[in-house]
Queue: 4 jobs
Job 1
Amino acid sequence: MADFQTDELFGPDASAAPLLNLDAVSVLACAPLARLSLRCRETGVAPAGTAFGLSLPIEPLASETAPNRAAFWLGPDEWMLVAPESHLDQVMDACETALADQPHALVDISHRQDAIIVSGAKAAWLLNTGVPIDLHADAFPLGTITRTVFHKVPIMIWRTGPDSFVIEAWGSFMEYVTGLLVQAADELKAA
Amino acid sequence: MSQPFRTEKGGRIDRAAEISFTFDGEGMTGHGGDTLASALLANGVHLVGRSFKYHRPRGILTAGSEEPNALVGIYRNGDQTPNLRATQVELYGGLEAISQNRFPALGLDVGAVNDLMSPFFPAGFYYKTFKWPKAFWDRVYEPVIRAAAGLGKPPKNPDHDRYGNLYAHCDVLVIGSGPAGLAAALAAAETGARVILCDEQAELGGSLLSEGSATIDGKLAPDWAGETIAALGAKDNVTLLARTTAFGYFAQNFVALAERLTDHISEPDPNVPRERLWQVRAREVVIAAGALERPMVFPENDRPGIMLADAGRTYLNRYGVKVGHKVLVATACDTAWQAAFDLADHGVEIAAIADMRPNPPDALQAIAQARGLRVETGCVVTGTNGRKRVKSALLGRIVEGGVTSAGDVACDALLMSGGWTPTVSLYSQSRGKVVWDEAVGAFVPGVSVQNERSAGACRGVYGLAATLEDGYAAGEAAAKAATGKTAALARASSNGADAGTGGVLGTLPHDRNASKVKAFVDYQNDVTAKDVKLAVREGMHSIEHIKRYTTTGMATDQGRLSNLNALQIAADALEKPLIDVGLTTFRQPYTPTTFGIFANVSRGDFFDPVRKTPSHGFVEEKGGAFEDVGQWKRAWYFAESGEDMHAAVARECEVVRKSVGLFDASTLGKIEVVGPDAAEFLERMYTNPWKKLAPGRCRYGLMLNDAGFIIDDGVIGRLADDRFHVTTTTGGAAHVFATMEDYLQTEWPDLDVWITSTTEQYAVAALQGPKAREVIAPYIDGIDLSAEAFPHMSVATGTFNGVPCRLFRISFTGELGFEVNVHRRHGKMVWDTLSTEIEKHDGVVYGTETMHVLRADKGYIIVGQETDGTVTPDDAGLTWAIGKKKPDFVGKRGLARPDLVAGGRKQLVGLLTKDPKIVLEEGAQVTKLAKPPAGTPAEGHVTSAYFSPAAGRSIAMALVKDGRSLKGETLNIPMPAGAIAVEVVDPVFYDKDGARLNG
């Protein structure tokens, strides 16, 4: 994995108040982003990566980052590409051009999901109130990306630091996710 | 003096902290570290409840979660929690406890008449007594049984507590923190493995906390436990969980733990959950659940003051409580002798040690002699006296062929021990099969089915030294299996608490009239030795039948105390070896577990995700009603002042047909199908042909399952040669997507096509009505909206108010219609814009109810309403949607099945009531005769029924046997108030030629 960079992409939405702001953990809404679902065969991996600006991860659960770019491995022929919102058309055009002679599917899903940043010493604990997978650093190291569930809804979870994670969920599920996170964090307020 | 049975010193209670509590309203005091049971005993209270069936006075039998008698209710926050075990309830200031199953009071209970009537309540008496007369069941028997059943009263209010959840993973989960558990945790933790150690008790340490004199590494056992626990707690790789019961062992080493966080606190912080469910996935599990002492089955073995010997020792050494001033110890094994010695050392008078064995070990007899204790060997208790507390016991001498009286002995407490039973519950839950160990005299774990091992007393390894060694070995082996790592750990050596010998199973011999005395096997369910024998006499030969006939082993401890005795009694009666009678399976939960911890966060707003559309705030503001459609909240109808639902829907329908209506269709499922083989894929998934559909055009798609039945429908637009925008029903979206993905991955991985859910990428505003074009025209750029350029069933991309837009010209109302798809975050802007714009045209916003009426006018089906999983395209009148020239599609072969092509199938038709004002009831049966004879099968049922403003009358759709051939005929809808006559018609009630649609 190249140097790990996330700050430019998944930044807090400056216009939104923190959803949760405790010493031990905070939950912040992310600003909008360009998100693309890329599906292609093996032969498309290299040209797509070149067009997007990084080499697509090919290991399960892996992510790859570059300035203003992140790519998530979601399946043997499935990636999610992330870029700043304003880069959407440019990224789509570049990828479509590069893959013109390759069977592929490139679909804009920028608005399908929203992202939040969960960070702090208790971030993994808080997420594990609803996420059934092991978030220990040995089992889920920096840069790991996976789809899983939070209680009853599907989410995507990406480790961006020892104590920070990006969670993505479909727009209409996000209230459920953040509502339950905030509620579960109540006990951290206890004396 | 308060607490007259408290020792002078010793125990792990906080003597400086005196705590007030009440039991049945009577004020008492105890200390920090007490359980309710130990505090009651310190106050000399043994009578704590009445038994289930006979209402016999009962006392505290144990010191643990297996307690069958001391079930109490605890009042808190104006409500009570029933059936808590006093042995597990930790004392806190102001605790209010009440006894149960008594009326009017614990001391005087009218239900106790059942005890005198007991000859009339033998095992299985329900089955024998309440068989006739039949009419009595509903009115007499069931109400009476229900009133008499159960112990405590259920709480009346919604649960005001909150419950937490945590998923956890570890290399080694150790269940139980006695010597085996601590040693296992130490050994596993030393390797660096991630360890979770849990114990159901308030304090970790298990049986070590009850030891008086045994030492480990030269320290008293409780002190060693304390230091060990502190050392474990300091490690980053160890999680210690006290007050945490491992209640369920499931597949793939998934173990559920219930952690009790606030029940022991006088005024808990409302931010803290009452309990937390830990859902643990462990690579390896070490079960160190220990063993339980067995009661002895002698006549009147249930009086208050009669207790298990080790419980007596625990109350003394751990809680500083003497169970009596004059204690008789009855035993068939060595370990109970230590209880007598410990009590004697605290100045308690030992009435006698009565050991059934003719020759108990000399060493024990020597210790007893040194303390001047009376020892009776070959001696058994044959009965007891004392109503609310034991006053004396009858002794009998075991002689050749029977028992002769050996007089009686006065006592205010009787400690008994029939030996030990390894706790194999969790092993059994892990689906392991126990095996009989003759040397141990008990069932022990057999082969491991999952990645688990038992250590210590729960597998019949007794004695402190052996238990520690077994624990170390189990911890090391578990860590190695989980992580491959080992570590050298100095093992502690111990002195004392040696393994004992002896033990007895089944009913004990006595010289009493066997038909008159009760010797209890299962205390909680009032099952006596006689009941078990009766069950055998009446033909119950399997332990599973005996259990259900007598209810033995069906108590909250699942028979951990009673099973072996019951088995032995049954085996004796059957004259079979014990192992041939079998053992019942232990199931989850290990101990009673709250409903709250299972419901957990799934309550109120979080019962299920609540999915909202972009118009949600608008609907709320306008006072619109919501309808739940799957997880979505959809606008149902918008009543204006003075309107009821019927009037609101009628108005909305009329305005849509006259002018224009705005409807939020964002919830419809959307799937983007992309790739060179996109058309081929849809060709296979849907009944319709797709290859010749031109980009920019739409088509209605019908999806079947393999059997040929309709499972979904929706409009599909072709955006480019290799790109389709598929819509599905709201409720079917997830299933359709999964079905498509399933076929792609398993049947046609060769196809170059991929599907992406775009349901939430787009918000959809539907404009329907003759003015629809005028409403959207000012905002649309890049699309020619004229009927010629953009006819019905078209799709194009452009912008709406400057944001990208996919515009569909489609209709689910029969009117001119457009659906504006914009990116989700622009949905609110579009909705706000259009809801203002329609006002210029006297338009309405409308909800799902009006949508349903408008589509029914046109005979459009709704999957799930007109279909129920047994409806084919032909049944629904949709044969036109099947591509006849296609070589194959999902469901094609199903449709050729003989039963689907045979006559007599139910077909979709319209129904018009003879009285146009009557709206039929959806789901009502359709018959030929107004009063069909009983047993006549229905011809079909009503699927949709509304009052239609467009038709000026009621309309209905129905599935009716051979319905299309019955047009013009009269059928009947039998209802409670009489049959409603209907005429069978074509199911299109409005604008049959579609002129409005194409406007």
Job 2
Amino acid sequence: MGIRERLSGNEAVAYAIKQVNPDVMPAFPITPSTEIPQIVASYIANGEMDTEFIPVESEHSAMSATIGASAAGARALTATSSCGMALMWELLYVAASNRLPLALTLVNRALSGPININCDHSDSMGARDSGWIQVYAENNQEVYDNFIQAYRISEHKDVHLPIMICQDGFITSHALANIELLEDDKVKQFVGEYTPENFLLNSKEPMSLGPYAVSNYYMETKKAQTEAMKNAKKVILDVGKEFGEMSGRTYGFFEEYRLEDADYAVVIIGSAAGTTKDAIDQLRSQGKKVGLLKLRVFRPFPDKEIADALRNCKAIGIMDRSESFSGQAGPLTAEVTAALYRYKVDSNIVSYIYGLGGRDYRAEDALEVFSELEDVTVNGKEIEQFRYIGLRSR
Amino acid sequence: MAGQKKMNFKEMMNKPERLAPGHRMCAGCGGTIAVRAVLRALHEGDYAVVGNATGCLEVSSFMYPYTAYEDSYIHNTFENAGATLSGVETAYNILKRKGKVKENYKFITFGGDGGTYDIGLQSLSGAMERNHDMVYVCYDNGAYMNTGIQRSSATPMFADTTTTPVGSQSVGKMQNRKDLAAILAAHDIPYVAQSTFLGNFSDLHKKSEKAIYTEGACFLNVMAPCPRGWVYNTEDIMEICRLGVETCYWPLFEVVNGQWILNYEPKKKLPIEEFLRKQGRFKHLFKPGNEHLIEQFQAEVDRRWEDLLFKCSR
């Protein structure tokens, strides 16, 4: 039986880090993720964990040192948000191509400008092509659970990729919620010891890492990365199942909420799923067949699984908490739509941008989305297919 | 230096090389000479992780699937050699404490002046301030040579580079060099030294050994001429380095726990022309009418030399 607590998302991740007790954590403060290294540093200061904390002078150096530590043979991680991750950008690709199984606990925040400290997904969505596994959470419990699973996925011999454990800035990172924590020994046993195959500090087999590779080798490294990402799908499911056997909370690529017989569905990532569920419950009580697909794993992208889950929907609203400025959809919409086309799901699709820079997303917004989807389908109403919701009226 | 038997010059030069032949650096390149000389100071039996900022050295010594390094080696990006090695060194500390690594390791990273004076300065500063037990070696060839001889903040005044080209309205770089060793000394780290290639390499060897075996963050600035950028005959490299020292353009000094120590004072300081004349990048200075430029260069060398003497006399 787990331990019942009340923690914020940042506290929950920091607690998970303490239980996993990785070897090295370089970090640089940035709102709203600052608490994570702060709490870890105080755990270390009080002898509750023996991770080496490196108080680096920038996020660029945080990721650089995390890469160095991981290459050396240590289990390593860092934490950041927004512009902090933007400063790491170049290194995100290096970590992935070097096949280093390190972790980043990302507290999603809008990218500048204008400077804004609140939640949206522009930071991680911008890094979607960097070769990292990306796992998102709806609430504090999920981000805690996701971090406990992180190294089991990233360190798996068929994967060897860095992993990003994301949560919504302030909405989950700073809000207290009930949470069920696992016992230390259970976590330790689940995560296991890290025994890298190749590492810098292996005196029996020195290693060179970070080569110059011209056109006769570069492309194969990318193909190897993409194969590893495909392999991660099975590993994510296996680890999610095993986690469920231990904790009672099983995880897959996404959660389907009242989706099975739904005519109208919303696809969404992160904390806004909770608000949407509330709207769904209201509509279901009125007899409306509405449901939700809450995506947990964006990289690797579970395209076929999503298409199958949405196959019988008449209309789908796909909700992006970040812009990609294509003028036609956000990144989640673009990828889900491609999956639906590839697997021959023919539904009405409307792309919504919501919640940028911490703009509130309310149950009324979700109700409006479902109402539009129905209007489009039943009444053949023609609406703009790419819409912003929650904008100021003046 | 406990545990190291005293070696004579011949024995030292016959130690197994830690930078294997077959890399693709240019003939007459100072960078490779610096790497070999520094790594030679590692005691036999000690392991090392060698770091490297992006630059000529990186792209020529570790072209997949070939590496020139006998030791473990990590290149990350251009601007983060300091931070990268600080991660490696920290990992070593905890893995050693946990008993997962038994051997003694030393951490040495190389960067050119681009990766050190300029784009990597913040990362270097952070790593030094945190006092990681590592040596950062700048092989200073005074320009971005890997991308084709663009000026850096290490480029001397009036040098002809591809971004400070000499032309009808230009006499080369207008600004003076950044004094990186002084900046590093201001970090209050245990050991900073400046050296180059001289005679039997005793100066560079001793400083390398001291840097590697001094606990904490240490910094070596090594003048490492580049035949393409400086435009000299490859066989002249040792003479150019000697003239750099004899003209007091590149003085040899150490800063040990904040104490400045001059290692060599020429009996007769040579005029700066001697150093400049050997290098094609300064050839315009010797055109009639440009005498004042050489005078200006000399005045700057004199000013810095006097300043160094003052620091070392305290």
Job 3
Amino acid sequence: MVVRKYAAIISYVLMSFLHTHIANAEDTTGKPWATLNDEQRIVLAPLADEWDSLRPWQRERMLEIAHDYPKMSPDRQERVQQRLSSWSRMTPFERENARKRYQQFKSLPPEKKEEMRKKWQEYRNSTPEKRQELRTQHPEIFGTEDLSAK
Amino acid sequence: MQTYNEDQAISMRDQEIAKNIASLLNTNAINIDAKIASKLSYGRQKALANMATPSSRLALSQHGVLRLLGDYWHQHRLLITFMMCGLGIVALLLIQNSSNQDDTEQGDAFLLASDLPPEIYSNEGFGTWLSENTQQ
């Protein structure tokens, strides 16, 4: 009798856990803007106008960004918001390449990463003329268009 | 011989007394109140039923007892198997969740928050620069 009671309790807990897990998994796909919670709307505000035209998998990716957002420092949060719109406009191929290279960049020796950060810091602080010069000299690092504001 | 006769006489007398008691009870039973008779009948049936249940349990041989234990164990073995399966599924889901969390540490949000703008990461030239510096 007692065993049956415990079995019933454990079964209930298991079922609840599975139900919550499945519900959470389904929740993240294809949510319209109106159904997002306040936190998600604040983070994804730059995408408010185009949100409902995004594909379900794109929305899912963006919701993942909103999920990680609170873990970041305020300056990094600001960067995320500044870059969200351009990120959503990149093609899936460009984004996939960016992900791969980001991982590759993370695996570089610390001194190499630091060197690159310094170069970018200098580039951002330079005059438009100097930035143009740097882009011409090192397009592999600074790209072909001015990304200093991003 | 004398002792045997005395014992026989006592036994005869006891039987005579028992017959007299039974006769008296039978005579009075006819006059007994119907309500009391019903209560007595119910009590008798209940007493017989109580006697019957333990006797049927006792009637089970050692094999019966083992069989009962076997059934009990069988039921619990199934229950334990189901519980273990359930716990296994929960453990798998938890592991999956934690690995997903690890993945998000390397997710798009962290790419966007990086020191370099995402457009640089998608630049072919930067890919070449990365390959050169990774090999060094």
Job 4
Amino acid sequence: MRHGVARFVTGFLALPVGLYLFYVVWPFLQAAGYSLTDWGGYSDRQQFVGLENYVRLFTDELIRKAFWHNVFFLVTVPLFTIALALFLAFLLNVGGREDKAGIRGVFGSGLYKVIFFFPQVLSLVVIAVMWQQIYRADGQGLINGVLMKIGLVDQDDPITFMYDPEPFLGVPAVLWWLLVIAVWSGAGFYMVLFSAAMQSIPKDIYEAAILDGAGRFHTFFRITLPLLRDTVSVAWVYLGFIALDMFALVYIMTPSQGGPNHASEIFASVINFNAFQKGQFGYACAIAVALAIFTILLAALQLRITRRERIEY
Amino acid sequence: MSVNPDLNRRTLLRRAAAAGLLVTPAAGLLSACAGSTPSPSDDNTGAKSNDNPFGVQENSAVKVVIFNGGLGDAWAKEDQAVFSAKHGSVTVNMSSTQKIKTEEQPKMATTPSDLIMNSGADLMDLSTLVNEGAIEPLDDLLAAPAWDSEGTVADSLLPGTVSDGTFQGKFFVVYVAFTVWGNWYNGALFSKEGWEPPKSFEEFFALAPKIKAKGIAPYVYDAVHGYYPRWALMASIWKSAGKQAVVDIDNLKENAWRAEGVLPALEQWEKVVKDKLVLPGRLDHTQSQQAWLDGKAAFIQVGTWLKNEMAATIPPGFEMKLSDYWTVSAADKAPKDVFAGAGEGFVVPSKAPNKAAAKEFLRAVLSKAGSAKFAELTKSLASTKGSGDNVDDPALATANELMKNAGQDLVSVKLWDFYADLDKESQNLSQELMAGRLTAAQFVDKMQAAADKVAKDSSITKQTRNA
């Protein structure tokens, strides 16, 4: 019986695993191979150059810039997205008034859930194109238009959003504006994730806490957050991946795909430039491999740090 | 409370996260780099004759990819008709797209299309294509007899077309459009107000306050694509510092950016920005062109594809007129040279299965019949001589007139075709200068530093131009 099951499972898995190996794992290995060559991308000529591409990577100023911009997103995207998603999820699930029916969300929370989740069903490209209109840098942009009408922004000096490299808290403004979009589009999904996790927390814990006189602040930080630790930790890892990508937004929205003047350059835009504009696929693959290693290490570290005794209920 | 030893929430989440690793951003980027082993193409050709100089095989098929940008793709269908009239048995599979590189680059090393119009923002880097041996030299096309006129194909082309398409001594890129760049204005508005289109920056700065007084911004440009303002900057540099200065810049000569005349040209643009003569905001090409059509700005700097690109929204009574870039000072070395050149280039991939038919198709594109249709449909000149002779269009007429009064040389810059790094850097710095974040002197310093860096970088193949 037991080995019959094994054969049954193998039979089912052979095809998908085969496809996966061929279309996903094999290209990865190929890319790693190309990273040791000087392949240009348009021909079948390539020379083995060893680790030269990797050595060059460490002296590349643009990579250094891109690295810090990715670090910025790595810190801010998970932080703000999780904070906003937790806040919304708390309000929608346990933030309302308590009455005879027990703990509940704020009035109309069912509707809000749909609204907050909505960005998730849009493709990132659609989101970027939509925000181009919101961020449009003249009187016809949504934000500029409204602010000009009420006199908060000078007609002759509109907010330039994607074209503004001036540092705010030491980080180019364009990155902050991109962050707004990333958080806006990501918060809805994690709100639903946290909502589901919150609903699995037994209500009697909350009721006991309220009986003991805990306010909203304390129920959130003493009960909800600790019990959501696992979910938040996974969300953090996923958002870390998103923060290391950010390619679609940068590519579609910023001038010169990483501008103005490299102010929004990220790993992916540097890879894109080296591979597809400069025709140095070997070097671009080396950057991609380095990024992959960096991502995996980061995820492992993250899961390691947050590992601790679980609470069962 | 129960504890399931096999699978609990903790391990489930951990496993989910581990699975997530396999869909990381890096994963997508990694697989983007992957390719496959190409197979050599066997190029079958049939019998060659004067009427069929490349030996196109009957009953073969040729795949043509058209860039569907500012010029549209209707003209290409006319060329297909010209081609098919002579080679009825050859199947032409024509498609049009704006994503040339996205769609064609992955196929270049294996089974590319036969003929690709490599144009637009998403084009394949030309110097890479040449260096990688990915495209075919087309010198035999130049030497072939012209489709429907006397002499060879080379004889039938406008000056500059062959040299613009030549890399490392060989002719690789067949530019089919002939573009004239300059400052556009609304003739109706100018005659109504009694304004004279300025010839020099001095005249522009004198006229600007009058334009501003009417509530119109004197100037607007595409602030999203750095190559738009860069045309204007390079045209001013050429007029002021002369041809040799730009040739030196393209050849990465030491201190080329510090040559006499370069800085004064850029200082004029610095003044345009500092005096707030530019329409506020950051608009892209169509937005800025629409703002100009809506009468929000007096001048816009762009090429002759403008009329076709904006055809749907030109207001009635609007007279599109083209004037030359403004001269910089009395000391200008080449004040009369016009920024014009062949654009919209076709390339034939080295691994294309039907190169003979691709070249023959190009011969049809460059024919008198084909190029006349091109000019008629796009309101732009073709790179074949005489294409616009029978087209009655005021915008095209001003471009024609500009060409007639032009100096001995055409402004042409190779820098951005030669080096992707300098292409990007010059676009970025042009945007910074026009945004008022760089002075002309800083622009020169940064460009010089970027040029020196490329000159020293041994991983970059160097190119030179003589003329």
